[in-house]
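Hi support team,

I'm opening this ticket because the web form for multi-chain structure prediction keeps timing out on my end. I have pasted the exact lines I submitted so you can reproduce it. The total is 575 residues across two entries, so I didn't expect it to be a heavy job. Is there a limit I'm missing, or should I split the entries? Thanks in advance, R.K.
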Amino acid sequence: MPEKTKPEKSQPENLKSNNTKQTFEPNSRMNTRDPYVSVPNTGAPNTPVKAPEQRSQTKGQPVPFRGGGFAPVSRPWMGFVVFFILIAFLEAGTRIGFISALTMPKPSDVFNTFVELYNSGLLWTHLVPSFTRFVIGAAIGSLMGVSLGIAIGLFSYVRAGLVPLIAALFPVPKIALLPLFVIWFGIDEASKYALIAFGTFTPMVVATYGAVDNVDRGLIRMGQSFNLSWFSIVRKIVLPGAMAGILSGLRIGLAIAIILLVAAEMLGAEYGIGAYILQAGSLYDLERLFTGVAILSILGVLVNSAIGLIEKRVLRWRGV
Amino acid sequence: MDIKLAGIHHTYGDREVLRDINLDIASGQIVCIVGPSGCGKSTLLRLLGGLERPTLGDILQVGNTPEGCLNPLTYVFQDFALLPWRTVAGNISLVLEDHGIGQAESQEIINDVLARCKLSDFADVFPKQISGGMKQRVAIARALAVNPAVMLMDEPLSALDSQTRELLMDDIVSLWTRQPFTAVYVTHNLAEAVRLGHRIVVLSRRPGEIREIVNIDKPLSERRHADPDLEQQQNALWQMMRDEAMAADAELINA
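Hello R.K., no limit was hit. The queue was backed up. Here is the completed structure from your submission:
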C-alpha cells in the first residue's frame, strides 16, 4: 500500500514537469511507437526544449510602458515646498537688493508686523468683525442659495421662472450694488451681510441645481417604486446625491464671500481686514498691506481645508 | 393577488410600442417575458408597476394583498439602484422607514431578509465594496423586505457575468421553493426564462404583441443547468424568435 501511494503522489509532479513537453506532441508519439529506443531517447526531449531557448536568443525588447501620468496622485508636501521657495526667493531678493524695497517688502518684516499686530491686540479688533461678517453673510447666502437651487432642481415652474433671472444676476459685480444696499439696509453691518450673502447666493444656486440635475434618475425612480414619500425622496435620495456638487459649489461661494468681505470693508468700515488693508495702502505701508493680504490668504486656505474635512466626513461613502 | 392586463396599448408619441396585450398573472407563479430588443418588454413592466400609464387599456389588481405587505408591486432593477451612501442594511431600512415600523421590528425584518439572501456578513459594508452579484442580492433582499405581492424584475441578471448569473438563478430558485412568490421577470436571455419561468410570454418585435405563451411544467427545483428538456424548450423559443430578433436588429433606432 505505501508503495502504491508513493507513485501516486509523485505522478502529479511528473505531470507538472511534463507540462512543458506536452506541447511537443509529435516527439512523445515517436516515443510510444518504439519503446525499445526509449533509453537513448531520454535525450530526445532536449531538442524540443531547446526551441524556446533559441527563441529567447534572438534578443527581445521589453514592451514600452505608456500608461503613466494623468491620474492625480496625492503629494501633500508639494504645496509647502512651493510656498517656501517663493518666500525664500523674495527674502533673498529684498535682502541682496535685486528686488527694490519700494516694490516688495521683506517677508521677515511682514512677519514682524504681523507679530506686532498680534501683540498690540489690534489683530482681534480687525479679525473679529471681519470673521463675523464673513460667517453671517456666507451662511445666509449659501442657505438661501442651496434652498433655491433645490427648488429649481425639483420644480419645473420654478426652474423656468428663475433660471433666466439667476443668469442675469450672476455676472453683475455685486460691489457695484453696495451703495444701493447701504440705502436698503443702512450703513451698518446689515448692508455688508447683504452684499456678502448676495455674492455667495448666485454661485450656490447654480451649483446646487446642477447637482440636483445630476442625481441618478434611477435612484429616484427606485424611491418612487417603493412608495417613499416625496419628502423622503428629497431628503434621503436627492440631497445626499447632490451633496458632492453642493460642497464644490461652496468652495467657490466662500472664496467669493471673502473677496466681497474685503470690498465691503474697504468701502465703509472702521475695523476689519479690508479697512486695515485700505489704510495701509493709502499710507503706502507695504509691510502692513502684505500682512493683511496674508491674513486673507490664510483665511482662504482655512476655509478650503474646512470644506475638505466636511467632504471627507459627508462623502465618506465615496472613498471606501 | 393576481394582476390582469386587459387590452393594453402604449405609444410614445407616434411610435406604437405595445399592442393589445391581454395577460393574467396568477399568484405564486413566475411569468417570464421575453422578446427581441426594443419590443417593449421593459415598458410593459413599468406599466405593470405604475411607473408609467398605458395609453389605452386597464391594469387591474385582483384580490387582496398578503398580510404585512408594505409595497404590493416591488421592482428589482437591472442596475440594482442601491444608494451608494448607505450600507447594505441601510439600503434595506430605507424602504421600511416610511411605514412607521418600530426600530426592533425593522431590524428583525432586515436580519431575516439578509439571512435569506446569504448577506448576513455584509450588513455594514457599502455597495461600492461588494461585487455585482452581491449588489443584486441586496436589491432582492430589499424587495423581499416589503413583502411584495408581485415582484417586478427588470432584467435583474443582465448586468452580471455568466457565472454569477448561474449562482443567482440558483438563489432565486431556492428563495421561491422555500416561499413561493409572484414575479414578472423580464429578460432577453432565454436560458434564464426556461430556468425560472412557470410561464413564458413571447412578445413580437415592436409594436410588441403576445406571440405565444409557453407553460413549463417541470418544477423549478428540478431544473438544472444544461437540462436537455430545458435546452429543447429554449431552442423552440429561439426558433420562434430568431427571425423577429434579426428584423429588430436591422431596424433603425429612431425610424
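A quick check on our side: Helices of chain B lie at 41-48, 88-94, 103-116, 132-145, 162-178, 190-196, 228-250. Let us know if the file doesn't open in your viewer.
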